[in-house]
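Quick start: what a row looks like.
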Amino acid sequence: MTIPKLGVGLGLRVPHMRYIFDQQPEVDVFELISENFLVDGGPPLRNLDRICERYPVVLHGVSMGLGSSDALDWDYLTRLKALVQRSGSPWASDHLCWTRNNNAHLHDLLPLPYTERVAQFIGQRAAIVQDFLGVPFALENLSSYVAFEQSEMSEWEFYRRVCEIGDCSMMFDVNNVYVSAVNHGFDPWEYLAHIPYERVVQVHVAGHTRRDDGTCLDTHDHHVCDSVWELYRHVYEQTGGVTTILEWDDNYLDFPATLAEAHKARAYHEVTS
């Protein structure tokens, strides 16, 4: 299956929707948070249809929690499959994390120990999800703040192993690599050196917050820093022009300023698709 390269876009957020509908700005692609549209009707689906009439979209989830020990949520997956079909999203993505335990949803993207056993568990579930959805399924690397003594491999080895087992794609968050590198003291360029770029269907760029103690938090409420843009340049070159999405989720700028931040990515495109 040929993976389309959709250009540079940004996450669709409620504070910007009135401007988008009124002004119809030129945007290559919008990323939609899947859970915002997993409803039976009403304004969310009407807004979805209006967006999809004019713009390509890709779906990105935040609650699948493939690393959770609970069984796969088939009601959720059935709704997601219908949303994929309605929106025309060429792939769907979610996070390499766990979110649920004993039917309690913790509403956070929680990290995992990097072991072969966990990789097998998640990879096998990712393959099931991908087969059911009928489109490529991509997993996103997390920003992380803790590490597990049980881990047997590096984060990038684990990420790669999961995607190999599941024969699934990568939704590669460049800012998350930088945040985790600062927090855990590894070289982000080593991470990038071990990514199978043929699996990367999309990337995220975003801003973060640096606390006084040096910890980085993945807050999505600042401009993208120069170090993240340089990592992005390398990823873009290695993929030959991957779909790029800016995430901005708090302390919102107006829409033109947010789009301008996303378009900074084009200054780092030294190769074209």
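That is the whole record. The chain has a mean pLDDT of 94. The radius of gyration is 18 Å.
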